[in-house]
Amino acid sequence: GTLCFGTERILTMRPGETVELSGHSLRFEGLFPQKGPNFTEDRARFLLIGADGNAKGEISSAKRFFQARQTATTESGIRTLGLSQLYLSLGDEGNDGSVVVRLWWKPLVTLIW
């Protein structure tokens, strides 16, 4: 929905699907398992698609699991576009490769940092 100063969307996405948010298109490329020094993660990769259909950049977010403490965290993705920012965070994963995605568009937010 539209917030006082920005836009938010929450939806379930499958690999290959595209979502529009405030004039920006994001295509979900899929979940990719990776290992870090003390964690494992499922990293979701999204391509920012321009009006011409070509990729303009990438944004990713991950769900990490720290074995030693049996703790899970979410690593949000942030992409600065001009004076505004796009935020992306992951929710639950489905057995079919889908994932719940929460997106925020914050216009002019870099002016307050």
Question: How would you describe what is shown here?
Answer:
The chain has 113 residues and is an all-beta fold. The protein has one domain: Tick-borne Encephalitis virus Glycoprotein, domain 1. Helices cover 0% and strands 67% of the residues. The protein contains no helices and 10 strands. The chain has strands spanning 2-3, 6-13, 18-21, 24-35, 40-49, 55-66, 71-75, 77-81, 84-93, 99-106. The protein has a 5-stranded antiparallel β-sheet, with no helix packed on it. Strand 4 (24-35) and strand 5 form a beta hairpin. The radius of gyration is 15 Å and the shape is globular. The mean pLDDT is 91.
Q: What are the key terms here?
A:
113 residues, 10 strands, Tick-borne Encephalitis virus Glycoprotein, domain 1, globular, 5-stranded antiparallel beta sheet, mainly beta
Instruction: Kindly identify the CATH topology.
Output: Tick-borne Encephalitis virus Glycoprotein, domain 1
Give the end-to-end Cα distance, rounded to a whole number of Å: 24 Å
The low-confidence parts are none
How many structurally independent domains? 1
| H/E series | EEEEEEEEEE
- Kindly report the average pLDDT value: 91
Radius of gyration: 15 Å
The biggest sheet amounts to: 5 strands, antiparallel
The count of β-strands is 10
How many helices does DSSP assign? Answer: 0
The main sheet orders its strands as: 1-2-10-9-8
Structural class based on helices, strands and sheet pairing: mainly beta
Q: Name the helicity range.
A: under 10%
Give the topology.
Layout: E1 2-3, E2 6-13, E3 18-21, E4 24-35, E5 40-49, E6 55-66, E7 71-75, E8 77-81, E9 84-93, E10 99-106
Antiparallel strand pairs: 1-2, 2-10, 3-4, 4-5, 5-6, 6-7, 8-9, 9-10
